[in-house]
Amino acid sequence: MHENHALPGETRQRLQDFLDSEDNADGLDFVATHGFLAALTVGPDTPPTAAWLPELFDNQPVCADPEKAARIVSDLEAWLKEIHATLYHGQALRLPCPLTLKATEPTELNDWCAGFMEGMFLKEASWYDVNEELVADLTLPMVVLADLIDDPELQHIRRDQKLARELAQQIPDVLTELYLHFHAPRTA
User: From the CB of residue 111, how many other CB atoms can be counted at a distance below 10 Å?
Assistant: First the structure.
């Protein structure tokens, strides 16, 4: 990651402490928030904070303390910049959770994928404006592992543990491919 945009450890910890606390009863947790911000970053256009912040916190205030809320928003914006800088400088994005799944219970990776899908849903139509088939193929790991869409074909893939594990391992590379698809200069 580019050192100018690296999120300081204390900022990351402050975000994790808040996002995983009871003070954040309506918002996404730390891992899901990373997925959400990753979707905003790799997608076709990053919406302004005023558009994505309400979605992240389910249209509720960030927190009751305005000073703390402002700090959290600033930290989230810095995290978004870190994710962008990582991908912009050609580095694979490291997820804040293991790329592992369990057959019988949800994992943090499932939460990350659900957060990614929430970020994608924010501007879903624009994701498919250019090369819909490619985008559908690239987002398949997140769509399958988020388990938000009830589709028999997706259920079949979810039940195939070997295939689901393979999809999980593809996520860092898929994020890079999505970022390049939407943000790399097009040559004629």
Answer: 21
Place of tokens 């139509």: 125
Dist CA 92 CA 100 (whole Å): 17
Decide: 16 and 79 in contact? Cβ < 8 Å: no
CA separation, residue 49 to residues 12, 73, 89, 151, 188 (Å): 19, 9, 23, 32, 33
CB 40 within 8 A of CB 52: yes
Angle at 179 between CA 175 and CA 181, to 5 degrees: 115
For 3-183, the fitting CATH number among 1.20.120.740, 1.10.10.60, 3.30.70.260, 2.60.40.1120 is 1.20.120.740
**Which of the residues in the chain have pLDDT under 50?**
1-2
Task: Give the C-alpha separation, 29 to 175, whole Å.
Answer: 20
- pLDDT tens track for 135-180: 999 999 999 999 888 888 888 888 888 999 999 999 999 999 999 9
Q: What is the pLDDT of residue 186?
A: 66
Q: Provide the pLDDT for residue 188.
A: 52
Total Cβ atoms within 10 A of residue 34: 27
